[in-house]
Structures are given as structure tokens and as C-alpha cells.
Amino acid sequence: MHRSLKEEASRDARSHERAEPSSEFGVASSRVDVRGTQTTVTAASAASPRIASGEEHPSNSPLSIHDMTVAYHRKPVLWDVDFDAPEGRLIGIVGPNGAGKSTLLKAVLELVPKASGRVTIYGAPYRRQRRLVGYVPQRESVDWDFPVSALDVVAMGTYARIGWLRPVTRKYRDAALAALSRVGMADYADRQISQLSGGQQQRVFLARALVQDAKVYLMDEPFAGVDAATEKAIVRILHDLRDAGRTVLAVHHDLQTVPEYFDHVMLLNMRIVASGPTRDVFTRENLQKTYGGRLTLLEQAAHAMARGIANSE
Fold it and tell me: Structure pTM?
């Protein structure tokens, strides 16, 4: 379903309570910490008040996901996901089509309901911390025919600070222009968004996230359908965000570029297969578990890993 640009903006500007439905699924949980260490939480340990409340997650984690299950029509799409994001890292979310990668981001943002589990941003529920989170959705999910300019779209990223339906003042308009300049789109500020190429539209949405000055950025396939120049520009911006102490989680499909682009990686196929530093986790064995033996992809990934390790030495 396409979302209008104003609907996207209103998500950032409005704060409201959403009840989380109780779990209709099992109690055993497979856990993976940021070092890639996996343990199993049994029904007995899940009954512990400390574990059940999610207190084992560090309160200073940019993003903590506690035993989250998401289901569509009673069919689980994500199952018992448990994760703590390390601060100031670029984290790639990698897995086959239908693995639940986009659903993971949407569940964190409360765009889809959770069957069970809890999400916190720096120790507090997302609804109280939404101003700390920037979001770049998939291009295909946005109605690009909405009659606004590139500058208008970026200015929507300021609504959380100035309030919904209030005018964008000079201060925030200048901030929007600066964000457009940062992604190389200042010359297109007055261009109708529908008249831009796919790569240019992606840069505009990235600028909208940047102007929020968030601490955590969630990006759903930011490199999909963009040209090589745009991809390089996005990578530079991601590195700048990391160097500034920001945390970025990005859904990514190109296995060959994972070692080059990301410090950490989450391998996901409905459940987290492994998670941790890319050098430790992005292995042939873990990819085999994640993709189920798609040898062509695995061989390409193995070549990318060898190349990435050689370049870092």
C-alpha cells in the first residue's frame, strides 16, 4: 500500500498510544547478542520477572528488541526476535526475500502491530522516543505523485520539532536546504518530487531523515534502484553518521558489498540466525543457514568477504 508523503510526515509528528496484543505463539526464544553468541530461553526462564520485563537489555542501547513476534493473519513473519544494537555502528539487516527484514523496521516504528514483545529506544518505548528515530522507507511504499517539491518533503522531517500543521519557519527551512545540499540535491529544491529520478528521490528522503537530527536511523533498502553515484553518496553519508556517533540499521540485499559497507550485520530469516561484527558473523556457514543453500549467492558473498578482509589488512 502506498503512503502519501504527508502520512509519512504525520507519523513523525504525532504521538499516540498503541496497545500491543498479547502473544498467541510459543514461549521458547532463540537469542543472539551483538557478539553473535546464541542462547536459548526456555519456558522456565521466560517466566522470570526480570527476563519477561526485558530488564536484561542495556538501557543505553540505541535499539533493544525483546522477544518480538509479528504475524500477518495469524501466520508468524518474525519469531521471537531479541536484539540489542551497538551504538555508533552501521548495521546491515540481511536475509532472503520474505525473511521479515522490512517488517522488522515497521514493527520497531509501530507501523505494524506486534503479536508479542517490546521495543525500546535508549531504554524507553518508541512512542516516547520517536524524535530520536529517523526513517527512510522503501521508495515503492511512497506515493511520489503527491504535489510537493523536494524542499517540502525534506521540511516534513522537521514537523516533530515544530508541531503538526504549524508553519515551517525560516530556521527549519534553512535546515532543510542544508540537508538537501548535504545529499547533493540543493539545485533541485523547487523541483516537483515526481519529476526526479529514482536515485534523486532516494536522496531527498535521506535528506528528510537527516534534517530530523536523529540518534537512530532505520533505512529500508536505501540502495535499491539507485545509480552508482547515488550509492556512493549514501555510503559517505552513512559513514559520516557513524563517525558522529549515530546508529544506522539498513535493510540490504547485495551480499557482495556487506563487508565493505557495514560494521555489524544481522542475518535474518524470520528469526535472527546470527548477529554481531561483520568480520565474525558474515561467514559462509551463517549464510548457508540464512539462505538455505543458494550457492551462487554464497559464492559471491565468499568472494566479497575475502576481498573485504584483504583490503582491511
Answer: 0.76
